Amino acid sequence: MDMERVLKGLPWTFNNHLLLLIKLGRGEVPLKVPLIFTPFWVQIHDVPIGLFSEKLAIQLGNFIGVFLEYDISNLGKENRNYMRVRVQIDVRKPLKKKKQVLCNGVR
Predict the structure, then answer these.
(1) For 59, phi and psi rounded to 5 degrees?
(2) Given this model, what pLDDT does residue 37 score?
(3) 40-53 burial string, b = 16+ CB within 10 Å, else e?
(4) What is the pLDDT of residue 75?
(5) Number of other CB atoms surrounding residue 10 within 10 Å
(6) DSSP 8-state symbol, 31
(7) Cα–Cα distance between 84 and 66 in angstroms, integer?
(8) Sequential pLDDT tens for the chain (107 residues)
(9) Which domain of life does the protein's organism represent (predicted)?
(10) Strand pairing partners for 44?
(11) Quick one: 57 exposed, middle or buried, by C-beta within 10 A (0-12, 13-18, 19+)?
């Protein structure tokens, strides 16, 4: 497989175990590269359709981890009650489960 295709398709698993992959730079020593981050696509549910926006996707993505991108094809679709964001996750930290969003001061 092409290396870029493999890296773009992250995360990968083997026997239900997460594989952490990174592209090494010239001269980098593999044993000194920390393997602690991996990207994930995350579904964010219960977002009112009127609040779907790039700004909210970025804010929620940065709450979960480090925002990378969002799936624009889901934004504003009536049959979708969630948004998808791609985030960089630190695998040493527990996953965040919940975030309340206020709209005009109302939960």
Answers:
(1) -60, -45
(2) 94
(3) bebebeebeeeebe
(4) 59
(5) 18
(6) G
(7) 14
(8) 688 888 888 899 999 999 999 999 999 999 999 999 999 999 988 877 777 888 999 999 999 999 999 988 765 566 667 889 999 999 999 988 777 666 665 55
(9) Eukaryota
(10) 83
(11) buried
The string over 60-83, giving b where at least 16 C-beta atoms fall within 10 Å of a residue's C-beta and e elsewhere, is bbeebbebeebeeebbeeeebeeb
Distance CA 27, CA 51 (A): 46
Q: What is the CB-side half-sphere exposure of residue 91 using CA atoms within 13 A? A: 13
What is the dihedral sign for C-alpha 87, 93, 97, 102?
negative
Please enumerate in sequence order all residues whose Cβ is within 8 A of that of 23, keeping only pairs 6 or more positions apart, or say none.
3, 7
**Among all chains, which residue has been given the structure tokens 């398709």?**
9
